[in-house]
């Protein structure tokens, strides 16, 4: 049967270890397990230990090392003290156990018990209450365990920060007093909040109730969306098509929200179109990506899509992140239809071409075109928290952008996406 045992390395209880063991585990294996959890016990021989349990001292001999928890009467939930015998005080060995009298054994046990009792430091309840007003000794012990757990595990601390950043800051500063006092303060605020909400005549209470109902409705809609339309939390693949200009293969971004079609200076040079640029149309263009210099306009050039050729006009911009952008002017002129059901772009009744898959899209263009509008809005601390939780940096960055830097929502969405992928 599985048991939960609390082990202390000294009688004062300053170092606690919680172990899950089997009632049939021998003391020899139990001590070996404790040596892994308590580093300063690692090099001490087994026979130098003794176990104190319910005012009973068990000296580790070759016989007692083979006994189990069940044999010694140690049950689930019990606490034991594992200590090292002082120099010169040895328990009876298997070779001379027959020569040791009962009175000698009692004297040794009495001395060890006296040493343990003298080492016990009983905390003064008044000291605890004066140091942490509003907390009982049991609550302080529980907070100490939580504090130590968060201090040792950065991932748990990062997840805990989502719920209480103030308490997480106390852990990072290694300030247990501030941790307890902040906990008491937060608890009092919550109690007062609930008390106000229970008063039907309080306007503040009604406002808090309305906020709680609003949060519950938002949480419900979020869970509903995650269950029935999870694709809403996945970045959408932009629409790109293949085309050829002067025999040079290019990938064009289809943007029905753009008023004019754009060609980058680098692409114009690569396709040998700079000779067609009318520099009388030079201007400065203000857009989402910032201020760009317009080098001029190409009034017409032939664009090959599949086996068909179409005359198109472009504005040429310097240092533009996207090679080619097909705007509304070209889409209207050639009566284009964006068919998302069949994933194709139709040019009137003459031609159609498939949109590129996510693997075929030039991501460097998207990063360059959208960096100024999105990348700068990512909170670096929240991004670091998601990376610490084990998520990939790019996925975490994209989800933070999509969730408006809401760390809790981004973590929830990433976790749901990971679970959905693992189920597949």
From TrEMBL:
<dbReference type="InterPro" id="IPR015940">
    <property type="entry name" value="UBA"/>
</dbReference>
<feature type="domain" description="UBA">
    <location>
        <begin position="377"/>
        <end position="417"/>
    </location>
</feature>
<dbReference type="GO" id="GO:0006508">
    <property type="term" value="P:proteolysis"/>
</dbReference>
<dbReference type="Pfam" id="PF09668">
    <property type="entry name" value="Asp_protease"/>
</dbReference>
<dbReference type="InterPro" id="IPR009060">
    <property type="entry name" value="UBA-like_sf"/>
</dbReference>
<keyword id="KW-0378">Hydrolase</keyword>
<dbReference type="InterPro" id="IPR001995">
    <property type="entry name" value="Peptidase_A2_cat"/>
</dbReference>
<dbReference type="GO" id="GO:0004190">
    <property type="term" value="F:aspartic-type endopeptidase activity"/>
</dbReference>
<dbReference type="InterPro" id="IPR019103">
    <property type="entry name" value="Peptidase_aspartic_DDI1-type"/>
</dbReference>
<protein>
    <submittedName>
        <fullName>UBA domain-containing protein</fullName>
    </submittedName>
</protein>
<dbReference type="InterPro" id="IPR021109">
    <property type="entry name" value="Peptidase_aspartic_dom_sf"/>
</dbReference>
<dbReference type="Pfam" id="PF00627">
    <property type="entry name" value="UBA"/>
</dbReference>
<feature type="domain" description="Peptidase A2">
    <location>
        <begin position="250"/>
        <end position="290"/>
    </location>
</feature>
């Amino acid at each position: 049967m599985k048991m939960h045992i609390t082990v202390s390395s000294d009688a004062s209880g300053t170092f606690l270890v919680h172990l899950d063991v089997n009632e049939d585990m021998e003391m020899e294996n139990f001590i070996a397990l404790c040596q892994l959890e308590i580093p300063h016990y690692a090099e001490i021989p087994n026979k130098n230990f003794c176990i104190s349990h319910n005012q009973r001292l068990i000296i580790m001999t070759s016989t007692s090392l083979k006994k189990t928890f069940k044999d010694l009467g140690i049950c689930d939930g019990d606490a034991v003290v594992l200590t090292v015998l002082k120099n010169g005080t040895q328990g009876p060995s298997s070779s001379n156990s027959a020569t040791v009298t009962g009175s000698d054994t009692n004297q040794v046990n009495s001395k060890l018990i006296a040493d343990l009792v003298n080492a016990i430091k009983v905390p003064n309840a008044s000291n605890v209450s004066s140091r942490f007003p509003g907390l009982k000794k049991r609550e302080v012990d529980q907070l100490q365990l939580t504090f130590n757990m968060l201090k040792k595990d950065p991932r748990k601390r990062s997840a805990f920060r989502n719920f209480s950043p103030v308490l997480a800051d106390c852990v990072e500063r290694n300030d247990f007093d501030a941790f307890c006092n902040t906990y008491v303060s937060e608890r009092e605020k919550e109690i007062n909040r609930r008390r106000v909400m229970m008063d039907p005549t309080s306007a503040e209470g009604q406002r808090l109730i309305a906020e709680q109902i609003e949060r519950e409705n938002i949480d419900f809609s979020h869970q509903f969306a995650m269950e029935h339309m999870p694709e809403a939390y996945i970045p959408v693949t932009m629409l790109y098509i293949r085309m050829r200009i002067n025999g040079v293969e290019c990938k064009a971004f289809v943007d029905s929200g753009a008023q004019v079609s754009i060609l980058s200076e680098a692409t114009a040079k690569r396709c040998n179109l700079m000779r067609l640029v009318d520099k009388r149309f030079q201007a400065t263009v203000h857009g989402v990506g910032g201020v760009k210099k317009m080098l001029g306009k190409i009034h017409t050039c032939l664009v090959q899509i599949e086996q068909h050729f179409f005359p198109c006009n472009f504005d040429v911009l310097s240092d533009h992140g996207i090679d080619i952008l097909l705007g509304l002017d070209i889409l209207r002129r050639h009566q284009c239809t964006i068919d998302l059901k069949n994933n194709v772009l139709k040019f009137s009744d003459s031609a159609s071409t498939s949109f590129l898959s996510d693997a075929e899209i030039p991501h460097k263009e998207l990063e360059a075109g959208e960096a100024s509008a999105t990348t700068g809005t990512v909170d670096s601390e929240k991004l670091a928290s998601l990376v610490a939780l084990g998520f990939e940096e790019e996925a975490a960055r994209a989800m933070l952008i999509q969730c408006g830097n809401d760390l809790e929502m981004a973590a929830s969405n990433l976790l749901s996406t990971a679970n959905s992928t693992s189920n597949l």
